[in-house]
Amino acid sequence: MIPAVLEQRRAGVLLHPTSLPGGVGNGDLGADAHRFVDFLAQAGFSVWQMLPLGPTHRDGSPYHALSLHAGNPMLISLDRLVEWGWLEPDRPGAAVNVAAYRVERLAQSYKKFMQRATDSDQRDFAAFINREAHWLEDYALYRALRREYSGQAWFQWPAPLRDRDPDALATARVRLSDELEQVCFEQFVFARQWEALRSHAEQRNLLLFGDMPIFVAHDSVDVWMQREYFRLDDSGQPTAVAGVPPDYFSAQGQRWGNPLYRWERMQADGFRWWMARMTTEFRRFDLLRVDHFRGFEACWEIPAADATAVNGRWVRVPGEALFESLLRHFGSLPLVAEDLGMITPEVLALRDRFDFPGMEILQFAFDSGADNPYLPHNHRKLGVVYTGTHDNDTTLGWFENLPAERQLRVVEYLGYPHEPMPWPLVRAALASVSQLAIVPMQDILALGRGQRMNTPGTTDGNWRWRFHWEQIAPDLGERLKRMTAMYGRTAG
């Protein structure tokens, strides 16, 4: 059964909020996010896909968040806080440290809130803390302790705090009470701004499409808070970590370093941990991509002491039991399986058992023969087709970097198009039989090399790309609207 949100053909754009214009240092949930919703709707799109929203580590990767439930405070619009009367106007200097500036401005905002907030706003804040207490209390303490210990990971803290000794935690809550309130306030503001954006999207008939990593970061409140669900030793260190095995692209495989789950423990209590996690995601999004879906059938288990993934092994996990429990609890599962990489018949069977759409990546379609599953004539209706993802180069950059014979294969397959790249591949995505077509914003703007969001296997220069409104030609919205209508993707 096709998920309800994909019962009709749709088109969408992939753009993380940090890539929006406006905002200090990065895009945020302010006026430009609302303007982007309007742009998508006017262009005939009905889906906005983005990356995970959690607070990040210093590398900025949204796939290794400090919390599965919290929102990234760097996405809070400071301008909105000024509009609400909770912050005085200010503009940073050119050489400002963006992160420090945002942290300071949020601290100022909390003080103004306590001075100026209406009784209604104060009640809303108290209600938010009470409603989200199951994760917020520990998250606030985790962030305050992390700041107190100069950014050290929880497993580097003094043993009583590392091991969550009740007396040590109680003492810390008293000592850091002001910081705890600050963190709670930031999450309250994030939630309020997110709900305003979500409401605006609903008014424009736009669905929000999220992204959920299968694993969590070792240094996260989720691991510190519930160590019993992870394969850790007495000092909080992993005994085995996640990754993928050696393949054509990497002789040593990839050692991601995320701690692996104790699936038997999770299953013993009816997967409550996953229920809570999915509740947060479904509250925010209409559709959710599950990253590394194959890890729900079997995961590559690497001994934690090993520096590479070579000595890992495949270990089965109870993915079917998990999804059956989630389905019973939620009634439906609007999920998309990121079924890329080393996919076995067992993984496909798990995907199809629950009618999860898979992913078709057009940039992967031209490196083999006519049976390549990513070629449009092999696409499935129950699928999501992409020109490329956040991990790919832009389509123009990809095409220009292909050898001449591969370029010829692409243009021959596409019928020797007269339009320059990336438009022929964008059209191929929109024309696909797959119910949902997603195009990265870089391809909407026809950008070339040097404009990608992430280069896998590297740590510098990622997650920073932003666009500018000036890059959108005056006729682009109307051109896109004609294309989405031509291929039956203008959702009503």
Describe this structure in words.
Belongs to the disproportionating enzyme family. It is an enzyme of class 2 (transferase). It catalyses: Transfers a segment of a (1->4)-alpha-D-glucan to a new position in an acceptor, which may be glucose or a (1->4)-alpha-D-glucan. This protein is of the alpha/beta class and 492 residues long. The protein has a single domain (4-486), classed as TIM Barrel. The chain has 18 helices and 12 strands. The strands form 2 sheets. It has an 8-stranded parallel beta sheet with strand order 9-6-3-2-1-12-11-10. Strands 5-4-7-8 form a 4-stranded antiparallel beta sheet, with no helix packed on it. Helix 4 (119-131) packs across helix 5 (133-148). It is globular and about 70 Å long. It starts with 9 loop residues before the first strand and ends in a 6-residue tail after the last helix.
Secondary structure topology:
Layout (H helix, E strand, L loop, with lengths): L9 E5 L16 H12 L4 E3 L28 H6 L14 H19 L2 H13 L1 H16 L10 H4 L3 H10 L1 H27 L3 E6 L8 H5 L14 E5 L9 E6 L3 H6 L3 H13 L2 E4 L7 E6 L9 E4 L2 H12 L4 E3 L7 H9 L4 E4 L21 E4 L8 H6 L3 H10 L9 H9 L4 E5 H4 L31 H11 L6
Parallel strand pairs: 1-2, 1-12, 2-3, 3-6, 6-9, 10-11, 11-12
Antiparallel strand pairs: 4-5, 4-7, 7-8
Helix pairs in contact: 4-5, 5-8
